[in-house]
Design brief:
The protein has 478 residues and is of the alpha/beta class. It has one domain (2-473): TIM Barrel, CATH 3.20.20. The protein has 15 helices and 13 strands. The strands form three sheets. It has an eight-stranded parallel barrel with strand order 2-3-4-5-6-7-9-10, surrounded by six helices. β11 (446-448) and β12 form a beta hairpin. α3 packs parallel to α5 (106-121). The longest helix is centred in the middle third of the chain and has 25 residues, at 198-222. It is globular. Residues 1-10 have low confidence and may be disordered. Bound molecules: 5-hydroxymethyl-3,4-dihydroxypiperidine (IFM). 5-hydroxymethyl-3,4-dihydroxypiperidine binds at residues 28, 31, 177, 305, 380, 427, 434, 443.
Length: 478
C-alpha cells in the first residue's frame, strides 16, 4: 500500500457535522473479493454471467477483482489511515452457503469473522449488507428471484449469518438496491442472470422485498439490539416539460424506481398507480395475503444510495434510450418502456450521470414528508471519473472530491433543518469491478493498479480523510 498523493490546500468552511456522525465508505463482496473458487465458495450468478460472451465490457471478470479476500488486512489499514468510523461491506452468499440452501461453509464465514475482527481492532464499525447481487447459481437454476422460495432461502441465510456475526456486528442491511437486482437482472438483462423477462422481473422485485422483510424478522427475533435497515437506490425525478405526457412519465419512473420499494418497506403497501401500470404486463397473483405486512417489518434505519436525477419524457418520439447500459440490453422500465431519459443539462460524471446535489435534498425531504420518520444514512454516493496516474505516481481527482463535497453540503444543510440524517458512506473505498462496465469505471477514493494490486490514495481520499478528521467540510480539493 502507498498513501502518497497530493494533499489539498484546505480551509474550513465552518460546516461541522454533529458528534457521532458516521463517516464511512462502502464496497461489495463481488466487486472486490476475487478468489471465487477459494475455500469452498460456491458459484454465483455473476461468475456464470461473466463467462458469457458480450456481457461485460472487454470480457472483464471478477475472478481476482482487487484481491480483497487475501488483502483485507491491508485494506482495513487503509480505512484506518482514512479515519473512517464505519465500513459498509457485503457478504458473499455462495462463499458462506455454496448452494444457497443446506450446508454452510465454515471457511467462508471465518473470512468475514476475520474481516470484522480486524475492523473492530481499529475501532471501525462494521456495517454488513447481506445481499449485494451475488445469488448462488443453484438458486437461479431453481428459478432465481422470480421464484418465491428464494425469499425463504434468503431469510434462512440471513438468520445463519446473523447468528454467527450478530455478536460483533451491530448494523445490518438486507438487500442492496432491490431495483437493480430485479429490473437489471431480469428485465433489461444488463446484470446477472441476464434474463429479459419483464413479467419475471416484477415477481423478482416482489420477492426481493419479501426476502428483505423475512430476513429482518428473522434477525430481529434473534437479537433485539441489532440495528436493521433496508437499502434502496433513490433518484430525484423531473418531467422534461410541463406536458401531461412528461408528468405521466415522471410518475411512472418514480413509481418503479422509488415508490414500489419505499411504499412496500415503509408503509406496507404497493402504490395503486404502479400496480395498475404493472397489471398490464402480468397478473399480480404472486403477491400473497400477508406479504406486505411481512415486507413492512419495523426497521431501525433506512439506507439510501443516491447518485443522480432522471429527467424523463413521455412524448412519442421524444425518447432517448431508457438505458445507458454498456452492453446489449433491453429496457429495465417494465410497462413504461416508452419513457425517454433526457439530458437535463447538468455536468456529468464518467458514467454520464448528471451531478445534482439538489436531487439528494429532494429525496430526503420526500422521505421525511411522506414516510414514517426513521434515522437515515447515505449508504452510497460517489462518482466514477477517468483517473490519470501522474509521473510521480499520484492521482489528482478534484472532481471526485467536489462531487462528494457537493453532496455532503446537502447532508449538512439537511441535518441543520432537522432531517434525521446520521451518516454518509462514500462509494467506493477502492476502485473495483463495476459490473457490466468491468474495470473501466473507477469509483474509488483509493486507486487500484489492477496489474500489481497496489493501492494508492487519490487526492480525493486525502481530502476525505481531512474532512473526517476535521468533522466537517473544508472545501473541495483543488
Ligand atoms: O458499483 C455500484 C454498486 O454496486 C451499487 N450502487 C451503484 C454503484 C455504482 O454503479
Amino acid at each position: 500500500m502507498t498513501t502518497q498523493g497530493t494533499r489539498p490546500e484546505t480551509q474550513s468552511s465552518g460546516l461541522m457535522f454533529p458528534t457521532g456522525f458516521v463517516w464511512g465508505a462502502a464496497t461489495s463482496a463481488y466487486q472486490i473479493e476475487g478468489s471465487i473458487s477459494a475455500d469452498g465458495r460456491g458459484v454465483s450468478i455473476w461468475d456464470t454471467f461473466c463467462r458469457q460472451d458480450g456481457r461485460i465490457v472487454g470480457g472483464d471478470h471478477a475472478e481476482v477483482a482487487i484481491d480483497h479476500y487475501n488483502r483485507y488486512a491491508e485494506d482495513v489499514r487503509l480505512m484506518a489511515d482514512l479515519g473512517l468510523t464505519a465500513y459498509r461491506f457485503s457478504v458473499s452468499w455462495p462463499r458462506i452457503q455454496p448452494l444457497g440452501s443446506g450446508a454452510y461453509n465454515t471457511k467462508g464465514l471465518d473470512f468475514y469473522k476475520r474481516l470484522v475482527d480486524e475492523l473492530l481492532s481499529y475501532g471501525i464499525d462494521p456495517w454488513l449488507t447481506l445481499y449485494h447481487w451475488d445469488l448462488p447459481q443453484a438458486l437461479e437454476d431453481a428459478g432465481g428471484w422470480p421464484a418465491r422460495d428464494t425469499s425463504k432461502r434468503f431469510a434462512d441465510f440471513a438468520a445463519a449469518v446473523h447468528a454467527e456475526l450478530g455478536d460483533r456486528v451491530r448494523n445490518w442491511s438486507t438487500v442492496n438496491e432491490p431495483w437493480c437486482a430485479a429490473f437489471l437482472g431480469y428485465a433489461s438483462g444488463e446484470h446477472a442472470p441476464g434474463r429479459r423477462e419483464p413479467a419475471a422481473a416484477i415477481r423478482a422485485a416482489h420477492h426481493l422485498n419479501l426476502a428483505h422483510g423475512l430476513a429482518a424478522q428473522a434477525m430481529r427475533a434473534q437479537n433485539a439490539d441489532s440495528q436493521i435497515g433496508g437499502c434502496v437506490n433513490l433518484y430525484a425525478i423531473s418531467p422534461a416539460t410541463d406536458s401531461e405526457e412528461d408528468a405521466d412519465a415522471a410518475r411512472r419512473i418514480d413509481g418503479l424506481q422509488n415508490r414500489f420499494f419505499l411504499d412496500a418497506l415503509l408503509k406496507g403497501e404497493y402504490p395503486e398507480d404502479v400496480l395498475k401500470d404493472l397489471g398490464a404486463v402480468t397478473d399480480l397473483d404472486f403477491i400473497e395475503d400477508g406479504d406486505l405486512a411481512t415486507i413492512a417489518a419495523p426497521l431501525d434505519m433506512l439506507l439510501i444510495n443516491y447518485y443522480s436525477r432522471f429527467t424523463v419524457s413521455g412524448a412519442p418520439g421524444g425518447a432517448q434510450s431508457a438505458s445507458a447500459a454498456p452492453t446489449d440490453s433491453g429496457s429495465p422500465w417494465v410497462g413504461s418502456e416508452h419513457v425517454g431519459f433526457v439530458n437535463g443539462g447538468r455536468p456529468v460524471t464518467g458514467m454520464g450521470w448528471e451531478i445534482d446535489g439538489s436531487g439528494l435534498r429532494e429525496v430526503l425531504d420526500r422521505l421525511v414528508a411522506e414516510y414514517p420518520r426513521l434515522p437515515l444514512y447515505i449508504s452510497e454516493n460517489g462518482a466514477a471519473f477517468d483517473d490519470v496516474v501522474a509521473e510521480d505516481g499520484t492521482i489528482h481527482d478534484p472532481e471526485r472530491a467536489a462531487y462528494i463535497d457537493t453532496h455532503l453540503r446537502v447532508c449538512h444543510d439537511a441535518i441543520e433543518t432537522g432531517i434525521p440524517l446520521r451518516g454518509y458512506f462514500a462509494w467506493s473505498l477502492m476502485d473495483n469491478f463495476e459490473w457490466a462496465w468491468g474495470y473501466g469505471k473507477r469509483f474509488g477514493l483509493v486507486y487500484v493498479d489492477y496489474e500489481t494490486q497496489i493501492r494508492t490514495m487519490k487526492s480525493s481520499a486525502l481530502w476525505y480523510a481531512d474532512t473526517i478528521r476535521h468533522g466537517g467540510l473544508l472545501g473541495p480539493a483543488e
